[in-house]
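Morning F.,

Quick status update on the modeling queue. The single chain you submitted on Monday has been processed. Sequence for confirmation:
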Amino acid sequence: MDHAHVLLTETEEMWAKMLMQVLKDNAIPCTAIPVYGAGVVLKTGVQERFQVYVPSSSMPKAQELLSQLFSGNNT
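Structure tokens below.
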């Protein structure tokens, strides 16, 4: 069984949190890592960005959920 985590997407914090909840609701473990350097933009009001990772074995289902969740958004 492969436990390596792979990058699913990079998106703004708000969307990352929403995506992670959907993944967890579908029994897909996930983790988010802030994109370093993006915090500088806090002074300009732009949101922090996160990279969301899932186990490689869960990638097909995670990509399907990502597609369904953000089909109308440019994240």
